[in-house]
Amino acid sequence: MFTVSAADAKAHGLPAATISVSTDGGLTPFALPTEHAYLQLSGPPGSPFGLSVESVKAGSTETDLRNVAELRFEGQELELGAFGEIELAGAPRPAITCAAGQSLGRAYHLLALVEAPGGGAVLVDFGMGPTEPPMPTPQQLLEDDKAGPLLRSLQVSFE
């Protein structure tokens, strides 16, 4: 497991949250890689496969998640997919799928929100190279042989 502690997050200017995730499968972890990110995992070369966990100010409705997707992938070709709740980090979480980018750079994304006590949230952005259409639902990605184990390993706790 790769972990970013609440103390390290707070020292980086983020809300105090401990984030842990498995790095099995050759994923390379990066702790606190940007101003708003707790961690990023990057998969092996050849196809998009990775995870980013970031602090955001967003609600948990379908409209909120669609807005997050549009802002996150601004300037890229974006196709919004299904909205639903999935079991993530120990509780039901709102999630949406989308496809962003073009050609070989196109990837499916699962965007899910883990709400923080007192406001704000942690955005989980899992991305992987596209498979054949149709775009998967949040639940299908959670059940995917490659994506599922990574997503199910995610743990988030706020202090």
Explain what the structure shows.
With 159 residues, the protein is α+β, with helices and mostly antiparallel strands. It is built from four helices and ten strands. It has helices at 6-11, 62-72, 138-143, 147-153, and strands at residues 2-4, 17-21, 28-31, 37-42, 49-56, 78-88, 91-100, 107-115, 121-128, 155-158. The strands form two sheets. It has a seven-stranded antiparallel β-sheet, sandwiched between helices. The protein has a three-stranded antiparallel β-sheet with strand order 1-2-10. The longest helix is centred in the middle third of the chain and has 11 residues, at 62-72. The radius of gyration is 15 Å and the shape is globular. 35% of the residues are buried. The mean pLDDT is 93.
Sequence-ordered SSE layout with sheet pairings:
Blueprint: E1 2-4, H1 6-11, E2 17-21, E3 28-31, E4 37-42, E5 49-56, H2 62-72, E6 78-88, E7 91-100, E8 107-115, E9 121-128, H3 138-143, H4 147-153, E10 155-158
Antiparallel strand pairs: 1-2, 2-10, 3-4, 4-5, 5-9, 6-7, 7-8, 8-9
